[in-house]
Amino acid sequence: MELTEFFRYGFLQRALIAGSFIAILCSTLGVFLVLRRFSLIGDGLAHATFGSVALALLLRMSPLYVSIPIVMLCSLGILKLTERARIYGDAAIGVVSSLGIAGGVMLSSMAGGFNIDLFSYLFGSILSISEAEVYISIGLSIFVLLLIIFYYNELLSITLDEDSAKASGIKTESINTMFVLLTAVTVVLSMKVVGIMLISALLIFPAVTALQIARSFKAVMLTASLSAMASVVSGIVLSFSLDLPTGATIVLINFVFFLTGLTYRRIVKA
Amino acid sequence: MPIDVLTVEDLSFRYNSSDVLSGISFSIKKGDYIGLVGPNGSGKTTLVKVILGLLKPYIGRITLFGDDIAAFSRWDKIGYLPQHIAAMNPRFPATVGEVVAMGLLSKKQFPKHMNRSDLAEVDRILDLLDMKKLKNTPVGELSGGQQQRVLVARAIVNNPEFLIVDEPTDALDPEMRDRFFDIMQTLNKEKKVAIVIVTHDTGNIGRYTSKLLYVDKKIVFYGSFEDFCTSREITQFFGEFAQHVICHRHNQNPNCPPGDHGTD
Amino acid sequence: MTITILTFLFFPACGKNENITVKEKKIKVVTTIFPLYDFARQIGRERIEVNLLLPPGVEAHAFEPRPADIKRIQDADIFLFTNKFMEPWVAGLLKGIDTRSLTVIDTSQGIILLQRSDNHGDEEHAHTHESATADPHIWLDLSNAMKMVDTIASQLIAKDPQGKEFYLKNADEYKKRLEELDKKYKNTLAHCKNRVIVHAGHFAFGYLAKRYGITYMSAYKGFSPDAEPTPKRLVEITKIVRRYGVKYIYYEELVTPKMANVIAKETGCGLLMLHGAHNVTREEMESGVTFVSLMEKNLENLKAGLQCL
Lengths: 270, 264, 309
Hints:
The complex is a heterotrimer.
Chain A: H1 3-6, H2 10-35, H3 41-58, H4 63-84, H5 89-111, H6 118-122, H7 131-150, H8 152-160, H9 162-167, H10 172-194, H11 196-213, H12 217-241, H13 246-269
Helix pairs in contact in A: 2-7, 2-10, 2-11, 2-12, 3-4, 3-5, 3-10, 3-11, 4-5, 4-10, 7-10, 10-11, 11-12, 11-13, 12-13
Chain B: E1 6-15, E2 18-28, E3 33-37, H1 44-51, E4 59-64, E5 67-68, E6 78-81, H2 96-101, H3 116-128, H4 144-156, E7 162-166, H5 174-190, E8 194-199, H6 202-208, E9 211-216, E10 218-224, H7 225-230, H8 232-238, H9 240-247
Parallel strand pairs in B: 3-8, 3-9, 6-7, 7-8
Antiparallel strand pairs in B: 1-2, 1-4, 4-5, 9-10
Helix pairs in contact in B: 8-9
Chain C: H1 2-24, E1 27-31, H2 34-44, E2 48-52, H3 67-75, E3 78-81, H4 89-96, E4 103-106, H5 123-130, H6 142-159, H7 164-190, E5 196-199, H8 206-212, E6 215-218, H9 231-244, E7 248-251, H10 258-267, E8 270-273, H11 282-286, H12 291-305
Helix pairs in contact in C: 2-6, 2-7, 6-7, 7-12
C-alpha cells in the first residue's frame, strides 16, 4: 500500500500530529529531568495517576479532574522529599510510585471493584487518539514549551548548579516547583493520549541519545527534540509497513537511535 | 562615608540543633582582600552560604551594600566561585561559553535571554582569561584547572564588586595556583573588588590576602596577617609552635628558631 | 425402663439435629470467571456457596490471584476454572496448595478448543504460534455452555450425593433455557443483511461466530486485550467495513472503547456492545445480570447491528 493512501486514514493523521507534539514536549522536559536524576518520574507519576483515578472512581467523581491535582501534589511531594529527606530524585520517585500503586490497589479493593478496568481507562494508545486529544496535545505542548523557552536560562543555571543559581538571585524554589508541576500535568495528559510506555520512553531516550552526541546544551535540546519526532514519525510509518504495534515500534526506534549515538561517540573518540 | 560591602552583626546559625555559628560580627569594605580560614567543620562554608542567601533561617543581621539581605536585589554585584559543582563532570553537556553566560543572569530581567552585548561580554572575559579557543568546548572535556577558570570567568563576567571564592586551590597544581592568585590580585588592586577567599590553608593565604578572618564557630581573629603572627590571643588559642609554623611557612626549616622573623 | 423411654425421647431430637447440620453445610465452590459462577449458582442454588474470584470490573485475562484468593481456593470444596489458556496461572497454583479435600475441575472437559479463524496475519506464523495457545472463550458457544453445565452438575453430585436429584433437576432446567436461547440465536442470525461481526475488542467470539456461521473479525491479534492493534490491521478492518457495508462496530465490556471509537470515526459506523461475559461491573452485579441475560442482550445488539429480520 502506498504512503499516500496511508495518510488518508484519520487515526494515522492524528497519531502523527499529536505524537509529534508530545514527542517534542516530552523530550524537552526529559533533558532536564535526566540531568537532575528524575528520569523515572514518568513511571512514578503514572503510578500516582493510577492511585488517584481509583480514588476518583471510589468517590464517584470524574477521574481526570481528580487525578490532575493529585498527581501535581505527588510531584511536589517528590520535590520536597529530595529537599527535606536528603535522598536523590530516583528514591523520592520510588516512594511516591509505590505509594500510588498500593493506594490504587487498596482503594480498588475497598470499592469492591469498579465499572471499568482501571488500566484501560488510564493508558491510551497512539492509534486511538480522538480529535479532542489532538487539540489537548497541541495546546499542552505549546503552553509548556513556551514556559520552558521563557525560563530556559534559569532552568539551565539551576540544572548546572543550584547554589550558584540561587546566589545570582534566581528564585530556584519557584522555578523548581513550576517545573515539576508542568511535568505532572504533561505526564497525566500525555499518558491518556499515547499511553505510559511511550511517555516513559520519550522522557528518557531522546535526552540520553542527545547527550551522547551533542556538544552544547542548545544542541542537546535540539537533538533530543529531533530524535523524538523522528522516532514517532518513522515508528508510525514502519509499524504500518511491517504490521507491528506502533507504540512498541517507536520505543525500539528510540533505542536504535541511542545505540547509534553511542557508537558514533565511540568512533569519534577513537 | 562609603557603604560597607558587607556587615554581619551577631550572626548565629543552628543546624540539626547544634550551633554552627555563634555571635559572628564583622564587616568588609571596598577593596578588602580577606582570607576566611579555620579548621574543617568550623562553619566557614556555612558563613559564606548564609551571606549568599543560600541558608536560612539565621539569627542576627546581615547587610549587603547597605541593604538588609532580605531586601537585597543587586545580586549582580556579587560573584560566587564555589568549590566545585556537581554538574561539572564529563556528563554535563554545556559549553564553556554557555556556562560563563550563566554569570550574566543576575543582572537580567525576565525573560532572561542572552543578547548580542551579553555574548560580547562573555567573549571579553574569555579573552581576559586566555580561554577564547575553548569557548565552544563542552566543560566536561576540560582539565581541572581549565574548569576552574571557567568558574572564575562565570563569577566575574558581571564585574562584581564583591567576590566570594570557596576553597579554590585544592585541585590545582602550583603553577595554576599562582595564575589564579594573579587574577585575584588584579581584580583587587585594579578594580577594587572586595574578595573573600575561603581556605583551610592558613599559612599560604596570608601571602596574598591583606586580612585574615579566623572562624571556629566564633570569630577567633580578624585582622592583618602581621597582627595574626604577633597576637597574644592567637598564641593562646593555637600555641606558640603552631602560630610560628603558620606564620613562617616561607621557611620550612624545622630548626627555624622561634620569635618574630618578619614576613619575607 | 425409664432409661429406655428417655433415650427414645432424645433420639428424634438427635436425628433432627443431624438433618439440620447436614443441610447447613453448603458445598463451597470457587470459580474464576463469571459464566462459571453463574452456571454453578443456577445448578446448586441454596445447597452451595459460590464465590467469584474476579472482583467486579477487573479484566479477566489480566487477573492474577492474590494470597486471599489462594486461601479461598484452598478452603473450598470445588474449584472451577475454564481451561488452561484462560487461566494459565492454575497450573502453578496447584503445585503450591493442598488438594486432598479440594476437587479441581477444568470445565473444558469434552470440549474441542478452536484456533484463531479470521485469517489474521500470516497463516504460516499462525500455525507455529497458535498450536501453543488456543482460543479460550469456549463458553460463548452455547452448546459448550451446556456441556460445562453437565460437568459442573456431575461434580456437585460427586461431592454431595444427597443433592443428586436437586442438581439434576436444576441443570436440566437451565440447559433447556440455554437450548431455547441457542435456537433463538440460530433463527435470528439466519436472516441478516450483514454477516460480518466487526469487533474492536480482543478475539473473543470465535466460538459464537462459528456456531452460527457468521464471519468474525477482531482488531486485535491476540486472545486478550493486552497487545495493541497494528495500524495495518486497523486499515484492513476499515476496508472490510466499507466493502461489506457494515453499519455497526462492536466494542467489548469493561474496557474503554477507544479502538471502537477510532474505527467508528473512520467509517461513520455506529457502536454497539458485545459482552464477552468474562466478568461484570459492580453495577451489573448489583442489578442481578446472569449469563443468559447478557447473551440475550448480545443477541439484541447483533440483531440490530447485523440488520437481521
